[in-house]
Design a protein that fits this description.
Helices cover 36% and strands 18% of the residues. It is α/β, with parallel strands linked by helices and 340 residues long.
Length: 340
């Protein structure tokens, strides 16, 4: 394992039990946690994007702010729902955030997950053309986005511009070199992972996957990763792709950890249904004393296959406790898994 980061869903609720009671709390604490994680030696700060929810809905201001406050850590998403995105405007936003961060953006995108509202992308003005599904629309947006990220000119310049233009067709600005290679696709199936490989995107695989074989979650996810790498090789790409997996992992090192996560009630995969009819498998959580945790995680085939591990964090417990959760893994567990 080469890199370890955190993944925050950015939940907030006006409850006395929550340390994150407003959108302001969620955003500012997300920036503070990225700073704290960098100081602890973590490799990445990633954020989930959900619309119509008390979560992190507009990622680029957050990514830019976190990038400006840090110097080394990767700043990313897991994932942005491409059904909602104007791909050309997104190129400008992503380019600006990446320039501010000094080329540290790692942008996870996808078709999206079950939503808080019905067909929320329609409220954003996006309707699939006849014969195209919302998933097809997301993939089309993605292809436009990836092409524009290459920095090639495509727009006809005005012969009488307000400001002088460079020669030739114009591209979107700011262009951030290398960002095209730092785009990831969140895949819930083997087939979409292979599609991402053909297009030259890195792979993000989360804590759920469409159940395609009935085998344990980590075994199915490891197979998905292997198929992704085979498709990458077949496509003839020259660089080495990156692969991340997400896990809920808690090292029980003090009484707070044991009170929050020591009940041992999520030690098995669970089965659910997405959209009412797609059978999905949800990976187990891990919570144990560090030595036991290392042995459990060594048996996780997908963690062994991936180069990046994203730790899902309980952001409503506050920055200090989440920094403790990250530190406990980095100091007491990660070295036993080959990190650094």
């Amino acid at each position: 394992m080469k890199k370890i980061g955190f993944l925050s869903f950015g939940h907030w609720t006006p409850s006395r039990q929550s340390q994150t009671r407003s959108a302001s709390d969620a955003l500012l604490q997300s920036i503070d946690l990225a700073v704290a994680a960098e100081e602890l030696g973590a490799d990445g700060a990633y954020f989930r994007v959900h619309h119509f929810a008390r979560q992190l809905g507009s990622p680029f201001p957050l990514l830019a702010a976190a990038g400006a406050k840090t110097k080394r850590i990767e700043i990313g998403t897991a994932v942005i729902d491409m059904r909602y995105e104007n791909p050309l405007y997104m190129v400008e936003d992503a380019g600006a955030a990446d320039v501010i961060a000094g080329g540290r953006l790692q942008l996870g995108i996808s078709r999206g997950s079950p939503e808080q509202v019905i067909d929320g992308w329609r409220y954003f003005g996006y309707v699939p053309p006849e014969g195209m599904s919302d998933a097809d629309m997301a993939r089309h947006h993605t292809e436009v986005f990836l092409e524009a990220l290459r920095g090639n000119g495509f727009a006809q310049p005005n012969p009488q511009p307000m400001f002088p233009n460079p020669p030739g067709l114009l591209r979107l600005e700011p262009y951030s070199e290398g960002l095209r290679d730092r785009i990831w696709w969140g895949a819930a199936t083997d087939a979409t992972g292979e599609w991402a490989a053909k297009l030259g995107m890195n792979l993000q695989s989360s804590t759920l996957k469409i159940d395609e074989s009935g085998r344990p979650f980590h075994v199915q996810q490891a197979e998905q990763i292997r198929k992704f790498r085979e498709a990458w090789k077949a496509a003839g790409h020259t660089r080495t792709p990156r692969v991340s997996v997400s896990r809920s992992i808690f090292a029980l090192v003090d009484d707070r950890d044991r009170a929050y996560f020591g009940r041992g009630d999520e030690e098995s995969d669970t089965i659910g249904y997405l959209g009412g009819n797609e059978r999905a498998i949800f990976g187990r959580s891990y919570a144990a004393e560090p030595d036991a945790l290392i042995e459990q995680l060594k048996k996780d085939e997908a963690i062994a296959e991936a180069d990046t591990l994203l730790l899902t964090v309980p952001n409503q417990l506050g920055v200090d406790y989440n920094a403790h959760v990250i530190e406990a893994i980095l100091k007491n567990v990660a070295p036993g898994l080959g990190w650094r």
